[in-house]
Amino acid sequence: MDKIVTLDEFIIRRQKDSELASGALTGLLRDIGIASKIVSREVNKAGLLNILGVAGSGDNATGDTVQKLDLYANEKLIECLTNSGECAGIASEENEDFVQLNAVTDKKANYLVVFDPLDGSSNIDVNVSVGTIFGIYRRKSDASEAVNLQDFLQKGTDLVAAGYVLYGTSTLLVYTTGRGVNGFTLDPSIGEFCLSHRDIQIPATGRYYSVNQGYYLKFDVEMRRYIDYCSDLNLRLRYIGSMVSDIHRILFQGGIFLYPNTRKHPQGKLRLLYECNPLSYIVEQAGGKAITAQLERIMEIQPRSLHQRATIAIGSPDMVDEMKEFVERYNPALNGE
Ligand code: AHM
Ligand code: MG
After folding, report:
1. Ligand 1: does its nearest atom lie under 6 Å from the Cβ of 332?
2. Residue with CA closest to ligand 1 atom 14
3. How many alpha carbons fall within 13 Å on the CB side of residue 33?
4. Which of 133, 137, 197 is CA-nearest to residue 167?
5. Residues β-bridged to residue 171
6. Each residue's pLDDT tens digit, 271-327
7. Catalytic, out of 70, 86, 220, 284
8. Could you count the other beta carbons within 10 Å of the beta carbon of residue 244?
9. Domain boundaries in the chain?
10. Ligand 2 (single-atom ion) residues, CB below 5 Å
11. Which of 20, 48, 52, 64 is catalytic?
12. What is the pLDDT of residues 111-156, one digit of tens each?
């Protein structure tokens, strides 16, 4: 049997042979790992809490307030990131503004973490997988000053690490620091994330496409043409409504995930900072591609606000290229019509 490599061991080993990965980054990844173990435990208990809780009152049987899981996950991440003193501030999908973290040590913190604490949380009540998505940046401002908005408005190409945690049939943490993508499965019996998927490579093409086809009539003509093409090819449509799960399938089995502009969401629905950028970094590191429905590389978009949305087409490189060809061929604006 192969020797078990825990997440901690792996990141410490990587730290030794990489210029980029400082001890601080190692500490941050470890903090996120700890927070996600706690969240994983609560996600697994969620069904039970619903049974024991008094419906609608917000209290469980013992009188404790039952907190919404996405807010709970948000708090746990902030708490764990505060503890090590390596994180100067966070921006979260759950907070309107960024949050300056006052380190419990007097260390100067040089990193910022952006995250969606529990993506797809509307799926929790029906026992469908959800996930945490995170990205880590080096701060631009001086470590002796307070963090500012510009620190957080960095492009995806500035990410120093990104990852996701999938709370599914098992809990899996997948991350990159720009040197490939590796996956770790939580072994609940020892409470450790153990290396289970080394150097993940996305297939060049695949049999799956993932889009909310219910919005078909609200998509632009070129996107409808591309979706018709996928359907003509008899590709398998899979849409969980939980982006981490959909992207996870595509990362391993190949395919394309689309969230284009609709009439309700003319800029797309998904958030650039918390969802699109970190997942694009991972997919690109695994050999895939990620662009907007307007064909801009996601990672090169200059963010203008914290909660900015983006359209996205992400996945196997050949499929994203094919989608691009459809847009170039059928987008009236690109054809001078
Ligand atoms: P959330 O951050 O509010 O959970 O929304 C993000 C989720 C993604 O996980 C998923 O891909 C998408 O919203 C589904 O949206 P829709 O129901 O419009 O298809
Ligand atoms: Mg989300």
Report:
1. no
2. 241
3. 25
4. 133
5. 167
6. 999 999 999 999 999 999 999 999 999 999 999 999 999 999 999 999 999 999 999
7. 70
8. 25
9. 7-197, 208-330
10. 116, 119
11. 64
12. 999 999 999 988 887 888 999 999 999 999 998 889 999 999 999 9
